[in-house]
Every structure is written in C-alpha cells, then in structure tokens.
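Might I ask for a little of your time on a matter of protein folding? Here, with my thanks, is the record as I have it:
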Amino acid sequence: MNNDFFAALSLLGAENSVETDLLVEKVKSAMTKAIHRAYPDSGDNVRVDIDPVTKTFDLCIIKTVVDDEPLDDNEINIDQARLIDPSAVVGGTVECKLDTASLSRNAAQSAKQSIRGDLREISRENLLTKFQDKENECITATVSQVEPGRGTVTLIYDKTELYLFRNEQIPGEVLKEGQSVKVYITGIANKQKKPIIKISRAHRDLVKRLFELEVPEIYDGTVEVMAISREAGARTKIAVQSHDPNVDAVGACIGPKRSRITAVVNELNGEKIDIINYSDKPEEFIAKALAPAEVLSVTITDPENRSCTVVVPNNQLSLAIGNRGQNAKLAAKLTGYKIDIKPEFENPIQGLE
C-alpha cells in the first residue's frame, strides 16, 4: 500500500510541478487535520510520519496509559497498551498506529480537499513566480496543439501550457505542431485565484520586443523606439530616434544586408515593416509617417485636437491613402494626428496627372 501511495505522491508532484518535500508537508498537514476531525480530543498527541526515502507512512495518536477505563481518545488501558508495547507502564505513553480506513469518510474527504486546495495555491504561486517578471515581454514557446474548430493554439513554455486565441494570432498565419514561435505576454489575469497568462502575436509591442532582440542599439538604448502602429499580418510602422549622432537609427534597425529587419519580418510571417526617423516637429513626423508616399506639405489645422491637412502629388494620392486606407490609418496612429489627405490639384487636367 505504501509503495502505491508514494508512487501516487511522486506523480502528483510531477503533474503539478511541486517538489516532493513540499508536497509531503502539505499531506502531513492535511492528514493531521483529518485525524483531529476523526478524533477531536487528540490535540497535540497526533503524529504523522511520511518519508519517501524509507517509504514510511504512519499515522499515530500518542496515548497515556491508565489502569482503568480511558476517558477520551488520549488514554489507553494498560492491558491494551501492553499488546502494542509489552514494556508499557501506567503513566507512560504508547504510540497507537491508525489505519487510514479508520478515519471517517468526512475526515478523509476533508483531507483530500485540503491537499487539492494546497496544490492549487502552490500552482498559483509557481505560475506567478515564473511569469511575473515576463509581463510585457517576449518569450519563445513551442506549438503543441492546434484546435481545428476554434483555432486556439496551445503552446508550451517551461512545462506550462499557454493558449493563443484566434483574435491574438496574426491573420492568415498557419502555426504547426512542433514549431517555435515568439509571443508577447500582454498581462496576467485573475492573479488572486487561477492566474491566466495572456499572450499575443498581434500586439504592436511584439514588434518592439523583436527589434530589441535583433538590434543591439535598441537594446542598449542608443536607438529608441518612439512610436509603433500595427495592423497585424499586413503592415507595421515604427518610428525610431538615435541618441548618438554617429548612429543612423533606421540603418541600425535594417542591419547589414537587411539582416535585422529580415529576421523580424520572417518571425511575423512576412508582415511589411516601414521604419522611419522620428521628429519632434509634427509636420516632419507626419510627412515621414506617410511613407512610402511623397508629401508636398503638411499644415496643422487644429493643434489642440491634433488635426492636419496633407497635400500629396496627384499620382501619390492612392499610395498615401493605401489599400483600404491602411497607410493613412497607420500614419494617424503612429503620429496621434487626424490626417486629411488631399491631392495637389483637385481637378487635374486629363493627361497632366
């Protein structure tokens, strides 16, 4: 029976990522409570001995030996005591072993619930310890399962299952079992009960973290990411600024032979990325944000409400607006300005556009 118990204990510890010693202490505590429940008068006379090394599992009540009828669970008649220990004497004590079967059903159930509760709390603490300092960071996880219907992807990170829901995936991306992918931890929900690690591949800050991994100048602070706007799966715009006049911010992000930006694009399943130099001057920043379109002029029409009018050559109008307005929307998000794009000539003469 003891071998089965310790095998189950080892499995329970492995499944819940709990050290055996800690689990033993929790089981001891639960069994002590169960004995107190079954034997209310036992008080401090309870002993629970669990040793995985020697495979020892003993439950005892230490009873005082008396020469008459016992008054409660803490006493035992001398005749009964000598059946346990022939050298027992009146006034002394003997250890009376208990069989788990002797515990009441309620006491046993209480012990199980106590152990389950302890395991949940240990699991909660372990999860928080593992991910607390990774909130708003990027991690690499392995795809273990892709659910066909709902599209939820199960990932494994350090023996922990994480769930990447469809709305946090890159549109059009197909993930496969065994594939390693980088995800951004957006937060930890329900910290007080059962923590849920929220992850995303669609979040704009994933792009920032990927550039930090690929560009040493961003990681060490020489180049700073000032703003990001993203339409996951389609295009990202990122504004950067160098704090060293000898370092080209855009060039550092692109890297030798485009190696750095290519690594980020590949991780994002081919998503297009526009890198521009940040400017403190709104007009300059807005003009650059509309790249690759050429901009003729930018007029701030309402500084308080951050609105502007941008004039572009007629043959650049479609490029400035972008497919379904994508370029204009991303530029607006990047700069924080409402952008009204107008052609250079409202009614161009045919053939002169």
Observations:
- Residues 105-131 form the longest helix (27 residues).
